[in-house]
């Protein structure tokens, strides 16, 4: 096993995402630990920022048992979200932008104040300006959607696109909301927001702690995705996808081509 420069791996990950081309898992040929994997992620997303994209928040990943089981990795991870990944509610989605995209139901937080480091759930919620239903389109750049923990972190935790619904008041209860992911109006995944670390607020607490380890803080105006509450469902052309979250509302999109 050899250890190439992290910048080279970041370029490979970024090129894979930019051109929607599958790449081989880094850990098949290189020693890559979690710390170095976050460094690769930072450099890779830095390339996007250098092309004019803007950091708009972070996504938490593998915060539910269903998600951990689906991909065979059982550690909470995070990734960076840019403005280029944001899609308007109801906007058409094209499969050509992705390698093998899947959709999962999420809950989004809108930050109203900075947050970083060890915080309580109460402190975290005091920094929140809004909560919303969301759908995340994840796309692992790795062949066959297979990866180890450092691989997925280096690939920006499969971040690729996301849709956020209307912001609701932060006092809206989010601890045990029914969640449905429907395909063409038929429920495909059913769950509860309680599947997200027992309460999605814990995911926000983890986000504040984990980004601080990378020298960042959650900034006012940023979006934080709490992590999929159910397993993800593959996207297919000609189908419509919708996420409903009790108390929070819904988001939807069609895959047109
Ligand atoms: C990793 C990203 C996980 C979530 O919400 O759990 C994630 C993956 O499943 O490819 O976004
Ligand atoms: Mg997700």
What features would you describe in this structure?
With 257 residues, this protein is α+β, with helices and mostly antiparallel strands. Helix content is 25%, strand content 29%. It is built from six helices and 13 strands. It has helices at residues 6-18, 34-50, 65-71, 121-126, 149-154, 200-213; strands spanning 55-61, 77-82, 86-87, 92-93, 102-111, 128-138, 159-164, 178-183, 186-192, 223-225, 233-234, 240-245, 249-255. Strands 1, 2, 3, 5, 6, 7, 10 and 11 form an eight-stranded mixed β-sheet that branches. Strands 4-13-12-8-9 form a five-stranded mixed β-sheet, with no helix packed on it. β12 (240-245) and β13 (249-255) form a beta hairpin. α1 (6-18) crosses α2. The model has no long low-confidence stretch (mean pLDDT 97). 2-oxoadipic acid (OOG) is lined by residues 59, 61-63, 67, 71, 104, 136, 138, 140, 152, 157-158, 227-228.
